[in-house]
Amino acid sequence: MKLSEHFTLEELSFSEVAARLGLDNTPGPIVITNLGLTAGVMERIRTLLGGKAIPVHSGYRSPQVNQAVGGVATSAHCFGLACDFVCTQFGTPYEVALDILKSDIEYDQLILEYGWVHVGLAQVGVLSRLESLTKRSLRAAYESGIRA
Length: 148
Ligand SMILES: [Zn+2]
Fold this sequence. Notes:
By secondary structure, the chain is an alpha+beta fold. The protein is 32% helix and 14% strand. It has helices at 9-13, 16-21, 29-48, 63-68, 93-102; strands at residues 56-58, 82-85, 109-112, 117-120, 131-134, 143-144. A six-stranded mixed beta sheet has the order 1-2-4-3-5-6. Strand 5 and strand 6 (143-144) form a beta hairpin. The longest helix is centred in the first third of the chain and has 20 residues, at 29-48. Residues 77, 82, 84, 118 line the site of zinc ion.
């Protein structure tokens, strides 16, 4: 099912971990609505990055899947309000994050992770924090800003 011109429900709710561990990662109706908002922001990012393909690493994560990947319980991924992705045709995750940072795209959290970019949206009706962070490795603490 298409959520937007270039993003489908299937890719935004696919989880390799869920498939591997046999966990359910089927989004419910509220999550599907949220994934539609996420897809809308991802379209804006796609346009910003010159219309290049954006492979999605992770979108929705059910509570079980989130726990299996060691994600924080309050993760925006659990609400369908986050997307981890790369855009290698455009540049490195750092270059991608920097371009999003400089744009007027509204996000709650923009995180330059170790190998991908995380964009999280605020819950409906909640003000976006426009927080940007860098995380250099699995165990590293979050640093403020997008850092090379
Ligand atoms: Zn993420």
